[in-house]
Amino acid sequence: MARIDLDHVSMTFRVREQYQITLKEFLLRGMYRRLRNPLLKVRALQDVCLRFGDGDRIGIIGGNGAGKSTLLRLLAGIYTPTRGRRIVAGRISSLFELSLGFEMEASGRQNIVYRGYLQGESPRGIRAKMQEIADFSELGRFLDVPVRYYSAGMMVRLAFSIATAIEPEILLVDEVLSAGDMAFQDKAQKRMRDMIARAKIIVIVSHDMGSLPRLCDTGVWLDRGRVRKVGPVREVIAAYREHVQGARTSESDAARDDHEPVPTGFAQPALR
272 burial class (0-12, 13-18, 19+ CB within 10 angstroms)? Predict the structure, then answer.
């Protein structure tokens, strides 16, 4: 039985204000006083409580920086919560950052094995799926070439073919995938529909409000790392759109007020 249970989960990143300090900066500033490069706390997720089970199709929406991709990575086990409890039961397939973990000096076939292990496949399972993955990728003899010679489209083809070869119980998708040319995109979309039909739980992050209701029944609106609303996906999308429209109207009114001309025809006080 597949299950997602996030109990008051928070995710805080600690980053330096400056990523790199040059030797010149250190010599000019750090030699005589403590070099200032303080740690900053970035609260990506705050007190998130979500519970989903078999049959749930969840669409995650929100503005840029709302914490959507962080939430997916936490569900996938890439991130560990800073606070709270995360329980995810079921075999996971993550369709985001597809090229992550590739060994650039290894061939395409070798990377099928490496990525298969990362996805929890056994050696026997990888051998059984090797030909199917190779055929779906349509890379032919390039599978015997180191992947550092691949174009971006070839990398996506291979990564997508590997990632979608397993039978997931929980499917995590970040945005709509564009894999290769138009012909391959048609294949990829059909493969995605098949996976969505088979998976027990699906979590999709997307800015495409038109397609989410066709794929999901539950919506989650994230705002600055917090869950703003959970419910039927169409209701959540409507509330989010109303909020965005209201924010734009407020900004437009504020900008108009800032540039309001001074009324004419009134006597001005004399300067003394």
Answer: exposed
CB atoms within 10 A of CB 249: 10
Encoding tokens for residue 259?
A: 């540039």
What band does 32 get if pLDDT is binned at 50, 70 and 90? very low
Positive or negative, the Cα torsion across 54, 56, 57, 62?
negative
Is 91-199 in the same CATH topology as 1-80+200-272? Answer: yes
Beta-sheet strands, E only, within the chain: 3-16, 39-53, 57-61, 83-89, 92-95, 170-174, 201-205, 218-223, 226-232
Residue 219 confidence (pLDDT): 96
CA–CA distance, 2 with 52 (Å, rounded to integer): 9
Q: Measure the CA–CA gap between 183 and 222, rounded to whole angstroms.
A: 35
Superfamily classification of domain 1-80+200-272: P-loop containing nucleotide triphosphate hydrolases (3.40.50.300)
**Residue carrying the six token digits 């070869």:** 165
What pLDDT sits at residue 185? 75
Q: How distant is the alpha carbon of residue 29 from its chain centre?
A: 39
Fold of 91-199: Rossmann fold (3.40.50)
pLDDT digits (tens, 9 = 90+) for 105-139: 999 999 999 988 877 788 999 999 999 999 999 99
What is the Cα–Cα distance from 188 to 180, expressed in whole angstroms?
9
What rounded mean pLDDT belongs to the chain? 84
Whether 269 shows a pLDDT value over 90: the answer reads no
